[in-house]
Design a protein that fits this description.
This protein is an all-alpha fold. It folds into two domains: 58 residues; 62 residues, no CATH class. The protein contains six helices and no strands. Helix 4 packs antiparallel against helix 5. The longest helix has 35 residues. The two termini are 35 Å apart.
């Protein structure tokens, strides 16, 4: 199950990247078409849908890799037992259903969630770029 979910998150991340490239291509085509007098009908609507796809498809992937904004500043200051309860509460009431449910099971098993492991790995390697 772990491998399936990790592949699902990665596939969603790739799909978000493809949607982002499609946005770029469509906007460039629209700009070139406007200069050439060839309008691309519906381009704005398609770009809007692609933007939504970008945002939602990337959420699970970024959440699993610790790149999603969360309440870490608050949680990091809690004692371990209270932090566990706070993690349970936050994961229970959040969106991103599959990724959150996955992390909920991890925390219920009293293991560190993937986003916490990712943050610790970045800190251990000296990468503090996300805190800028």
């Amino acid at each position: 199950m772990r491998r399936f979910l990790d592949r699902l998150y990665d596939a969603a991340g790739v799909a978000a990247a493809v949607a982002m490239v499609a946005i770029c291509v469509l906007m460039l085509a629209q700009a070139a078409g406007r200069e050439a007098g060839i309008p691309i009908r519906g381009a704005d609507d398609i770009v809007a849908w692609l933007c939504a796809a970008c945002a939602f498809l990337a959420l699970g992937h970024t959440f699993r890799h610790g790149d999603l904004v969360r309440v870490g500043v608050f949680l990091d200051r809690l004692p371990e037992r209270l932090r566990w309860h706070a993690e349970l509460f936050a994961l229970t009431v959040s969106g991103l259903f599959v990724a959150v449910l996955d992390e909920l099971v991890t925390v219920l098993r009293k293991q560190k969630p993937a986003y916490q492991r990712a943050e610790e790995a970045r800190a251990a390697s000296g990468d503090f770029s996300e805190t800028l």
